[in-house]
Amino acid sequence: MTTSNRIVRLELATVALPDSHPRAADGGCTVDGFALVTADGVVVVDTGPRAGHPIIDELYAPIVTDVVEALTSHDVDDRDVIAVVNTHLHFDHCGQNHRLPQAPVWTTEPELRAASEPLFTVPEWATIDDKRRRLSHDGEAIATGVRLLHTPGHTPGHQSVAVETELGLELIVGQACYECGEFEAGVPAAIDAHDPPEGAASAQPPPGPTSWADVGRESVERLRSLDPMTARFSHDRRVWHRTS
Q1: Strand partners for 9
Q2: Is-contact 51 58, C-beta < 8 A?
Q3: Which pLDDT belongs to residue 212?
Q4: Whole-structure pTM value
Q5: How far apart are CA 192 and CA 197, in angstroms?
């Protein structure tokens, strides 16, 4: 299916990475969301962090762009937003959900459970009002040419987004992979075989895989098997392009 859907990258923040972070040697990273402009309206994928939380400010020193301002800079009207998709509920992906109050917020049931655990996220940012909360089914279409794909690994309920455009199938990978090169190789950043995803202390892998490392690899392989034309990431501004 070919549609007129287009993808707009929203540069929402830069953050420092504390010594406790597995990528602390990088010093910091960018945090991006995406606006999917469809015939039905605009779908925003991730809303970035916000400033003003004492612990987050101390540890991550976020430099934040307001998500509404980011949309406006691309001539996208926030009043046209019909849905927000959180790839996952870590603080840097859901912190500005409140800035788009008219839109339902899509997450997954395993992610909601994980977000209730200590140290997983900022609870007041990740909490979704009952009237706005939507629990996605794997493969569910939420707008013309826009489907949600369950891709656990980085977190228990991580989801990615498949978008049909004039180019063909394009993917918003989110953080199923941290870097473009991981998607190219089909191997996400290593998750210790005995450790649960970040912050989800009691999470158990789904039936079948023996570890979260297996779960993450299977999610990436599933995305690659869709034979997309492009793939975009939350923390790497490089875009992966199919070469053949």
Answers
A1: 34
A2: no
A3: 83
A4: 0.94
A5: 9
